[in-house]
Amino acid sequence: MKHFDAIVIGTGSAGSTVATTLSEAGKKVAIIDDMPFGGTCSQRGCDPKKVLVGAAEIIARAQHMAGKGITGRPEINWQELMAFKKTFTGQIPANTEQKFADAGIAMFHGTATFLDKQTIQIGEEKLTADHIVLATGAKPAKLGIPGEELLIDSTGFLALESLPGSMVMVGGGYIAFEFAHMAARAGARVTILHRGRRPLEGFDADLVAMLVKATEAAGIRVILEAAVAQVTPSDEGFQVDYRKGGQTGSVQAGLVVHAAGRAPAVEELDPERAGIEHSKKGVKVNDYLQCLGNPAVYACGDVAEKGLPLTPLAGYEGRLVAKNILENNVETFNNAPVPSVVFTIPPLASVGMTEEKARETGKDLTVTCAETSDWYSSKRINEGISGYKTIVDKETGLLLGAHLFGDHSDEVINLFAMAMKFDIPASQLEKTIMAYPTRSSDIRYMF
Ligand SMILES: Cc1cc2nc3c(=O)[nH]c(=O)nc-3n(C[C@H](O)[C@H](O)[C@H](O)COP(=O)(O)OP(=O)(O)OC[C@H]3O[C@@H](n4cnc5c(N)ncnc54)[C@H](O)[C@@H]3O)c2cc1C
Ligand SMILES: NC(=O)c1ccc[n+]([C@@H]2O[C@H](COP(=O)([O-])OP(=O)(O)OC[C@H]3O[C@@H](n4cnc5c(N)ncnc54)[C@H](O)[C@@H]3O)[C@@H](O)[C@H]2O)c1
């Protein structure tokens, strides 16, 4: 039995951060993963996805500018694009392992399970540690519908050798909208089936309505209040049956994609053996990110119940866990607003509260919301639909939320995030001289 100061389970943004920080501080560290080292974001999530989005943006831009100085129709060559994508993802496992080797971190490949509060088993090997860190991320949630095995998940989609002519996205969240936008620009007929009344429930309703309009304008069908009930093989590939308001409907498609949510990767760990409490939302932790039921164990990233399941949060939580292990619980989780982007074309970006949530606070608000397709920034590229909403606390003048839809929203939102983090009042943001003509220079008209 080998003993370590810390065992980290998971090599993604959260786990890598903890392991390297502890190792740099002189701790004896082991790290475990049952997939190629490097985690979701860099290999199967954000980064490869945005390479594909980059190509789709060119198609959309050319379509918008057709007859306005752009002739000809660029097309996506899927095989070439996937080969380009692999130039980013292919080296990740080797580079990650090299980084761990250089840091003197012991590496183990396989599925980790708890044997007791401080013992982990991977295959035949048993490891013990003073601290164990759960950074196991999330996996596609079980749908519990007949034909579930016929769907591909986001990992499968990002590895497709060729793109079928038609596809259905089951679910209406980040993955559904991002993949639908890129597949449509690559020439596929796409249908989004979402069971809720509105998609992307965490985003502001008015801005989501703009995104849905732009999505439909890109030729994507969005069917709401449609709960997918079963998937069966058919002549065209698959038949997807759904229930909508007491009625049933069906869509034929060459591919069906699971875009119906991800669940924290907890079960395989056998957490009960270590006394670790968890819920559907993940491993329960206190403000130091220490597991409830077992203080020797910490959790960070998508697997932990705290914080949004996003990469910047995984890195932040990893840094926090490392610090709390090294310095014996000195810093608590900061629930400050985190910007989030749906990488559609154009992107939808948000930081802070939605108008709905802000109204619940009972504060006196100034809410400014408009479509901006007639603003120069949108007209210049013939962007059909764009808009914004800002929510300011009347008493303090501070921003409670900002929501943007349009070209470059994914970058401009970070200025709002900075203003919120450093309590810069809206009036100051408005007065800041920004380079012109840029989307950021539009901020002054958003209050
Ligand atoms: C398609 C897609 C696109 C995304 N796009 C974005 C984006 O644009 N921006 C953004 O901020 N976020 C995005 N995300 C979310 C982001 O990828 C995650 O929030 C982030 O990767 C979580 O990091 P993590 O370290 O918690 O877990 P992960 O990176 O998932 O790492 C966990 C690792 O633990 C391993 N593991 C699990 N259980 C065990 C076990 N029992 N034993 C051993 N190993 C185990 C897993 O195999 C995995 O390799 C996206 C996610 C997906 C799926
Ligand atoms: N740009 C980004 O930051 C980004 C991109 C992709 C993924 N992610 C992360 O990955 C997570 C998972 O993404 P996601 O898009 O799969 O999930 P999601 O939770 O954003 O959305 C899934 C939606 O599918 C619906 N749904 C579930 N079952 C259904 C059914 N049978 N029929 C119809 N609809 C159904 C749910 O009501 C839910 O609203 C996100 O929460 C996010 O944290 C982030």
From TrEMBL:
Ranges where the FAD/NAD(P)-binding domain occurs: 5-318
Domain Pyridine nucleotide-disulphide oxidoreductase dimerisation: 338-443
Record's keyword terms, sorted: FAD, Flavoprotein, NAD, Nucleotide-binding
GO MF terms, alphabetically ordered: nucleotide binding; oxidoreductase activity
Keyword Oxidoreductase: no
Domain of life, per lineage: Bacteria
Record-annotated disulphide pairs: C41-C46
UniProt cross-references to InterPro entries, sorted A to Z: FAD/NAD-bd_sf (IPR036188), FAD/NAD-binding_dom (IPR023753), FAD/NAD-linked_Rdtase_dimer_sf (IPR016156), Pyr_nuc-diS_OxRdtase (IPR001100), Pyr_nucl-diS_OxRdtase_dimer (IPR004099)
Binding-site positions, FAD: K50, D302
Cofactor: FAD
Cofactor: binding comment: Binds 1 FAD per subunit.
Residue numbers binding NAD(+): G171, G172, G173, Y174, I175, A176, F177, E178, G261
Family designation: Belongs to the class-I pyridine nucleotide-disulfide oxidoreductase family.
Protein name according to UniProt: Pyridine nucleotide-disulfide oxidoreductase
Species the sequence originates in: Arsenicibacter rosenii
